[in-house]
């Protein structure tokens, strides 16, 4: 066989092999791109679950998550691990159930399950406008203001004193409680439960029995503790400029005189001289 023909055949063989490799690789890439991504079966809520409720099997369903499931999601094969646990944050229908939205196993439901270790839930009575109008809802951050007359200062003219008692406090729940009045009749009282430390719970409990309490909303991103000195009723009017007192323009004081008696024999006379500077 002619060497020239052999060389041409070898070059054609290598070109064909390279082309075949490129075509096969292109087909594989297209097939991989067309292949659906992996999915994962996770546990989700079949209906809305409110804070404090306890999950049962009828509340759960499973859904497919395409790609990587959310961190803390409960896999379908571990569905039973969610049964009997309390909900510490509202979960909506169709939403995957995450571990950090549930109380620890065995802690049950209700408000107690939402309280972190080392913290306390302290109930504060508020007026109906604050609660019913939706101004204070679970998850919000508030400041606690107190107003009243300090002990031992009932007779001081400054009157009612107001000051900020606690700042940046989380609201756990807001609702109504039933208490009895002086006649033993049931009455509805608006109650807000605040998440506080044991020390703050003592302060808040004492203040609620002695003073009027008001909750002030704050931006949840604003965690700065402000320095506020407090104020009293007298300070509300301190900023009004008092009218300048009118001064009476009295008459000029008459100049003062001193008297000198002059004795000339048996004759006696008196001479008056004006006192320099008005002194006698």
List the keywords.
alpha+beta; 6-stranded antiparallel beta sheet; two-stranded antiparallel sheet; about 20% helix; Type Iii Antifreeze Protein Isoform Hplc 12; about 30% strand; about 280 residues; 10 strands
Secondary-structure element sequence? Answer: HEEEHEEEHEEHEE
Quote the average pLDDT.
Answer: 78
Q: Structural class per helix/strand content?
A: alpha+beta
Shape: elongated
Q: Strand tally, please?
A: 10
How would you sum up the major sheet? 6 strands, antiparallel
Low-confidence stretches: 240-248
Helix content: 10-25%
- Radius of gyration from CA coordinates: 44 Å
Q: Could you tell me the strand content as a percent range?
A: 25-35%
What report would you give on this structure?
- The protein is α+β, with helices and mostly antiparallel strands and 280 residues long.
- Among the domains are: 75 residues, Antifreeze-like/N-acetylneuraminic acid synthase C-terminal domain (Type Iii Antifreeze Protein Isoform Hplc 12); 105 residues.
- It has four helices and ten strands.
- The strands form three sheets. Strands 3, 4, 5, 6, 7 and 8 form a six-stranded antiparallel sheet that branches. A two-stranded antiparallel sheet has the order 1-2.
- The longest helix is centred in the N-terminal third of the chain and has 32 residues.
- The protein is elongated, with a radius of gyration of 44 Å.
- The termini are far apart.
- About 3% of the residues have low confidence.
């Amino acid at each position: 066989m002619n060497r020239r023909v052999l060389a041409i055949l070898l070059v054609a063989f290598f070109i064909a092999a390279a082309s075949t490799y490129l075509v096969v690789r292109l087909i594989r890439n297209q097939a991989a791109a067309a292949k659906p991504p992996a999915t994962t079966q996770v546990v989700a809520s079949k209906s809305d679950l409110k804070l404090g409720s306890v999950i049962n099997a009828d509340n759960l369903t499973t859904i497919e998550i395409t790609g990587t499931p959310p961190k803390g999601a409960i896999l379908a094969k571990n569905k039973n691990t969610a049964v009997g646990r309390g909900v510490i944050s509202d979960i909506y229908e169709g939403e995957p159930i995450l571990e950090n939205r549930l109380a620890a196993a065995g802690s049950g439901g209700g408000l107690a399950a939402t309280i972190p270790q080392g913290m306390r839930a302290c109930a504060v009575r508020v007026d109906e406008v604050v609660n019913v109008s939706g101004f204070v809802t679970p998850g919000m951050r508030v400041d606690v203001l107190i107003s009243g007359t300090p002990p031992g200062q009932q007779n001081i003219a400054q009157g009612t004193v107001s000051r900020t008692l606690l700042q940046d406090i989380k609201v756990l729940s807001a609702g109504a409680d039933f208490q009895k009045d002086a006649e033993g009749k049931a009455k509805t009282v608006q109650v807000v439960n605040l998440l506080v430390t044991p020390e703050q719970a003592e302060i808040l409990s004492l203040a609620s029995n002695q003073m009027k309490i008001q909750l002030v909303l704050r931006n949840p991103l604003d965690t700065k503790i402000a320095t506020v000195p407090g104020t009293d009723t007298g300070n509300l009017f301190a900023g009004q400029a008092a009218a300048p007192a009118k001064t009476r323009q009295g008459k000029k004081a008459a100049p003062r005189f001193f008297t000198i008696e002059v004795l000339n024999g048996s004759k006696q006379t008196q001479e008056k001289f004006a006192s320099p500077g008005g002194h006698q």
